[in-house]
Amino acid sequence: MTNNLQSSELTRSDVEEFLYWEAALLDEWRLEEWLDLFTIDCLYEIPAPDRPDDDPGETFALIHDHRAMLEQRVIRLKKPTAHAEFPHSRTRRMISNVRILGRGADELKVGANFAVFRMRQGIEVTYVGRYEYVLIPRTDGLKIRHRKAILDQEVLDPHGKISIIL
């Protein structure tokens, strides 16, 4: 008897609901709950915009966090000393074109497009791109093993960095 759901049991609608829930947690700055969506062996990455397909372990990446680093990122973002995000930016995420790209016995490969709107101190910045996920079906719901946000931007304006979680 397995403790996990089979990936073949899940529909695109199930995956969409999960991605919308994830987006809501991030927009509401419920970062600890968002972190609970990840497996222990997870990877969260944002590759350099000019090299989205390069191995992040071998080249520059904007973010390449395994679980311990992701936990530290969440702790840091919640502190008042995180000046780039205190008070927190207001964000709104739009997720579209959700597709199940592959099914293994214990995982789903998923793609989706995104637009993240960040408002802070009168400045609005829009990040546009696509997500690639490896999702693991569990009896308590889907978990994220790998989350990759690939930006379409060539330049990160206005300040050249990302201080929110895409």
Provide a short characterization of the protein structure.
With 166 residues, the chain is of the alpha+beta class. It has 3 helices and 6 strands; from the N terminus they run H-H-E-E-H-E-E-E-E.
Account of the protein in words:
The protein has 166 residues and is α+β, with helices and mostly antiparallel strands. The chain has a single domain (7-151), classed as Nuclear Transport Factor 2, Chain: A (Roll), CATH 3.10.450.50. 20% of the residues lie in helices and 42% in strands. The chain contains three helices and six strands; from the N terminus they run H-H-E-E-H-E-E-E-E. It has helices at residues 12-27, 31-35, 67-78; strands at 38-47, 61-66, 90-103, 108-120, 123-138, 141-151. A six-stranded mixed beta sheet has the order 2-1-6-5-4-3. The relative contact order is 0.22. The model has no long low-confidence stretch (mean pLDDT 90).
Summary keywords:
Nuclear Transport Factor 2, Chain: A, alpha+beta, single chain
Helix-strand makeup class: alpha+beta
Order of helices and strands: HHEEHEEEE
Low-confidence stretches: none
What's the domain count?
Answer: 1
Strand order of the largest sheet: 2-1-6-5-4-3
Average pLDDT over all residues: 90
CATH hierarchy: architecture = Roll
Largest sheet: 6 strands, mixed
Summarize the amount of helix as a percent range.
10-25%
Task: Report Rg.
Answer: 16 Å
Percent of residues in beta strands: 35-45%
Shape: globular
CATH topology: Nuclear Transport Factor 2, Chain: A
Tally of extended strands? 6
| N-C termini distance | 37 Å
Number of helices: 3
Question: What's the level 1 CATH class?
Answer: Alpha Beta
